[in-house]
Amino acid sequence: MSQPKKLLIITYYWPPAGGPGVQRWLKFVKYLPDHNIQPIVYVPQNPTYPIIDQGLVSEVSEKAIILKQKIKEPYGFASFFSKNKTKKISAGIIPNQKKQSFLEKALLWVRGNLFIPDARFLWVKPSVSYLTHYIKEHNIDTIVTSGPPHSLHLIGLQLKKDLNVRWFADFRDPWTTIGYHKALKMSGYAAQKHKELEREVLNTADTILVTSKTTKVEFQALTNKPIEVITNGYDVEKVTKQPLDDKFTLAHIGSFLSERNPRILWKALQELIKENKDFAADFQLKLIGAVSQEVLNTIAEFKLTDYVSNLGYIPHSQAVAHQRTSQVLLLIEINSEDTKSIIPGKVFEYMVSERPIIALGPEDSDFAEIIKTTNTGVFFSYYDKEPLKELLLKYYKLYQEDNLQVHAVGLQQYSRKQLTAQLASLIKS
User: Fold this and answer.
1) Alpha-carbon span 229 to 214, nearest angstrom
2) Do 378 and 358 meet the contact criterion of CB atoms below 8 Å apart?
3) How far apart are CA 154 and CA 420, in angstroms?
């Protein structure tokens, strides 16, 4: 076999980081050596991760070379004023605009206007300096930058200009059209600066990688560079098979942001509890992950608090187990034009859990098409209360009959192994 091709991967989220941001490249790195590609992963030595999952450390491929350099992050200074509020904003949990405190407004203004494109911008210059020497010394000709944080694309931009390496810019989420972007209280100058940097990255990288068809269409309006869709996916998880929950559990796994607050769901559940004593006795809402206070307040408004089991953030392995023992899985996206392109990473793990999915989001969402074509669940807009209520009752009756199940089709295309094969083909082309 020929010498492995070296691939330098520049990413911020890496074990022990928890949450969805870490999964994509953790899994690519796991399978790239199978394609005779040597992954070299560059990550911060002292990052500020809003979520920690030590269990993911053991999943890092032994064949990967890991490079670490220190990072200076303004969030460390900001947390001096309010560690809790800073951590939530860092995690993307932005309070409702009408209910923001003065401190929260100030932190958002600073984040939007002084940290451009994000709070990791101070890592760009030292990283370029370190990686320039490393790339020359080890004869590396291909790099990948993964964002957000989009500061990492600025590292790739400068390395491309200085060394003319082949550069893949991987966008796990969009840049200026991401849902929280408008909440950052940016000045006209800051908003324009973001757009200029986005356009320069898109027109300088050799290839753009995106996770959805809608993001590809958005970017095609800004660049003529090749854009490839490689979605997130699922991996084969070693989880001991356990019996389903005794209760009729609806489980939401992942961050439950303020904007992901489907009142039609809470109203439908409230009505079912009032109308059906058996449903009221059997129902439980499982919340796994960070949940905004506004969502909890709305749940209380609909008198559902007594039915909630709020587990908070738990290790990924435990979250996967809950996906497979819950009766029904909830997938909720913000009801906005800006989120049509967002395909939550957890949707793929949901799809292989063999549990039915109830999904809510904006009409024509990319993830709605995936759920429909794989026959893994049912999608609703934020205005479909009666059909949603009917489905909940249907699922409950099937649960009572011990016959609530799903028959998925066409999942293989979303396996991490299959997706890594696509990536490897691009890298070696």
Assistant:
1) 10
2) yes
3) 25
For residue 116 the two structure tokens come to 């451009």
Starting from the edge strand earliest in sequence, which strands make up the sheet with 308-312, in order? 308-312, 283-288, 248-253, 328-332, 357-360, 377-380
pLDDT of residue 80: 38
CB distance 324 to 354 below 8 Å:
yes
Nearest Cα residue to 325 out of 284, 269, 266: 284
Summarised one tens digit per residue, pLDDT across range 13-22 is 999 998 888 9
Collapse the DSSP code of 170 into the 3-class scheme (helix H, G, I; strand E, B; otherwise coil) and give the result.
strand
**Share of the chain residues as helix, strand and coil, in percent rounded to the nearest 5:** 45, 15, 35
| 66 and 75 Cβ atoms separated by less than 8 Å | no
Q: How far apart are CA 242 and CA 222, in angstroms?
A: 49
pLDDT digits (tens, 9 = 90+) for 351-363: 999 999 999 999 8
Whether residue 39 has a cis bond before it, omega within 30° of 0:
no
| Sequential DSSP letters for 286-304 | EEES-B-HHHHHHHHHTT-
What would the DSSP string read from start to end of 264-284? Answer: HHHHHHHHHHHH-HHHHHHEE
> Is 338's pLDDT higher than 90?
no
Cα–Cα distances in angstroms (integers) from residue 280 to residues 62, 192, 400, in the given order: 49, 52, 13
Whole-number mean pLDDT of the chain?
A: 90
Say how far apart CA 24 and CA 37 lie, in whole Å: 17
DSSP summary character for residue 291: B
Computed on alpha carbons and rounded to an integer, the radius of gyration of the chain in Å comes to 22
At 428, list the tokens: 């070696």
207-229 burial, b if ≥16 CB within 10 A, otherwise e? Answer: bbbbbbebbbebbeebbebebeb
Among 140, 160, 142, which residue's Cα sits nearest to residue 201? 160
Q: Alpha-carbon distance 71 to 121, whole Å?
A: 9
β-strand partners of 69 = 44
Report whether 394 contacts 357 (CB < 8 A).
Answer: no
pTM for the predicted model, two decimal places? 0.86
What SS3 state is found at 13?
A: coil
Residue 350: helix, strand or coil by DSSP?
Answer: helix
The amino acid sitting at 243 is P
